[in-house]
Fold each of these.
Amino acid sequence: QSALNQPASVSGSPGQSVTIACTGTNSDIGTFNLVSWYQHLPGKAPELMIYDVRTRPLKFNRFSGSKSGNTASLTISGLQPEDEGHYYCSSASNGDTPIVFGGGSKLTVL
Amino acid sequence: QVQLVQSAAEVKRPGASVKVSCQASGYVFATYGINWVRQASGHGLEWMGWVKPSNGKTDYSQRFQDRVTLTTDTSTETAYFEMRDLTSDDTAIYYCVRGYQIVELPSGRRYYGMDVWGQGTTVTVS
């Protein structure tokens, strides 16, 4: 089990928007604006998409991050088939480990 | 472009050790830390430790600090991960990840922002 909770799977149709939630505690997401999101596409290395809650490289302009309380969210706009893959959140933490991850969410584009 | 290329998959017996390499290119190796993260089957990602190539300074997850050693070779721009006393629970994909950011936390620990990932090395213990 992972420190941060994500839905195991999410799906959407091309062109739609989907949101992936990442729920932590007041020891991690609730305290720190150090939330990152990683995209892991089949056959490729994971890639940093969002850092510091909402900052993104230009390549990921259809992706946006936000945070409210102990929950961070990743929203993907204008879904494309090539977005299919796994998405992981991470956060700084005051717990035993300074960096914690979610279990990952598999995105399926219908 | 910035790239981390890891060594090939390994199969080990319980009780053995494994050493994984991670060769960097496309940036000044000494100026960024290297993190190691693993993903065991059915589990999420787990941060294991960090090493600073310029001086060899390390920071380990408490869970692994007794069994893991992180080193670097700046002459070949390569980072190494070594784990001892392997069990079947250590069967996982091991990733090296460049650390671009260091933040001091109130707990006294450090947060390492991670950006570029290696392709992963599968270690099977059986």
Amino acid sequence: GQQLNQSPQSMFIQEGEDVSMNCTSSSIFNTWLWYKQDPGEGPVLLIALYKAGELTSNGRLTAQFGTTRKDSFLNISASIPSDVGIYFCAGQENNDMRFGAGTRLTVKP
Amino acid sequence: ETGVTQTPRHLVMGMTNKKSLKCEQHLGHNAMYWYKQSAKKPLELMFVYSLEERVENNSVPSRFSPECPNSSHLFLHLHTLQPEDSALYLCASSRQTGNGYTFGSGTRLTVV
């Protein structure tokens, strides 16, 4: 099936820094989603993108749906300690949802 | 609380035990899923139910047996598991298959 390549696998940053992560696919998707998973919890939806080229913000988070429909990125500005967790991208095409392997974010105060 | 409730949160079982994981949602969703999450691996889809009918089974070993008695409840029955089955088991639901999912908090399973 379609594979999502998510990078980087992990990031160690200082509080206040900006963060960028991305997902690429060999096939197109009609929806891209970004989830965050806190330790000991299930993933929670952060942002959903439904149109190629779409740029959507949710507070300090900004995500874009790539124009080729094969990629998406997530930016976090001015990181804070509670941003710690694993961020997953997901691509949806028809009734199929695929997840990336996740980006583990550590924020040092 | 996301609207999808999983119990128990933690489970330790021996390889000869039989146990069940439970998932419950009252979001009015029609599709429910079981995922396995192992360290440093993508989420692995195990089972999909749509309107209480199983629509996908991703070559999951028969020691995992799902049950969906109604659109609000989903079970995963476990029998003679192996240590490599230790993982976080996540339940999710969605309005239709493939739509944005709402996940539960998961059951952390340890097989000893």
Amino acid sequence: GAGVSQTPSNKVTEKGKYVELRCDPISGHTALYWYRQSLGQGPEFLIYFQGTGAADDSGLPNDRFFAVRPEGSVSTLKIQRTERGDSAVYLCASSEAGGVYYEQYFGPGTRLTVT
Amino acid sequence: AQSVAQPEDQVNVAEGNPLTVKCTYSVSGNPYLFWYVQYPNRGLQFLLKYITGDNLVKGSYGFEAEFNKSQTSFHLKKPSALVSDSALYFCAVRDGGSYIPTFGRGTSLIVHP
């Protein structure tokens, strides 16, 4: 079946602009995670959704970052007033449920470059 | 608090030889441990997990991992490496009751023909 998809695969934007990154999880997966991965590092947690609600947003670095999942499926990560330090690969993952037993299925990521 | 360490940035092994990629962890409760592999320009793929039960866990592509509670380790192993195993490997841990995993920095595995 279809895996997790993310669009766009690459995004180049100018400093100060607004960007939206989209994630389509595996159908039926109730848990959805956003991570940020910098070169030479592991995925860094940003936000976790269980259904439509953000169950944990403690990883969002500041109030320029926001994410939604209005219907419990597709999610959008929104970044306002982008900065060069936001440049990274943004990964989305989904799992059957949010419990500790479940592995995550990752999308290919969106590479964001802020110039 | 939970943390995970992958002490080696890179592991080199000849094709056909056994391989080990190391991972140690720290949790305050029961550990739930995962290994993922990442190929270039692709997302992470799940390999195997330890939740409870047998300390030796078998996973995809012939990989296995051994949970050692006294040494707080969860090393990834394969008896005979393939060139196609060359990739970036990530260990992750969840503390009991936590929905959020912590990932290690990753280990680059290079298998030489």
Amino acid sequence: EDKVVQSPLSLVVHEGDTVTLNCSYEVTNFRSLLWYKQEKKAPTFLFMLTSSGIEKKSGRLSSILDKKELFSILNITATQTGDSAVYLCAVEGHTISNFGNEKLTFGTGTRLTIIP
Amino acid sequence: SQTIHQWPATLVQPVGSPLSLECTVEGTSNPNLYWYRQAAGRGLQLLFYSVGIGQISSEVPQNLSASRPQDRQFILSSKKLLLSDSGFYLCAWNHGMSYLYTEAFFGQGTRLTVV
């Protein structure tokens, strides 16, 4: 059974701090790891990672994948109150079945709260 | 551009009543479709996924069922709701033809409260 574990479960920091969110996984035939930000309702896509050691960057957010150690981190620098959200990590594993082979397994998320 | 619609946004139903949540996708064809549930304190739990009309795979045994009567329509149902069915339900889609397109796009969700 595919498994995704995120840590910490929740994090409270002051505006301007840098945070690191962790995601470890066990999955059959890994294909990709994705990070989402969920503020109120629907999660929105942040990054998709497929290769080890290659950092993906978007503004103050960056992420990197380690396929040997089976984890990924999401970094947010100079945090702002608008960064407050639940950050979800999801992993796609390739499974052969009669009904196709692409589905995402999500972690429980890290709730990040930024204090002004 | 592709859009995903999910309704209703909120729903309060008594125990034992039926349920029907609908999700439709526009602007794409033959999407993979998913139903997730997000219960308080838990992550997104995959309930059902479908790679084509009439093809439904269930991930967990439960009181719910899903159907895909049309290519871009995915319905989540129950004949008799339980209190434990309360939660936030999300519909999602992605492309199934290439792993390059595994990003999933989510609907706005339905907050279901069973009373």
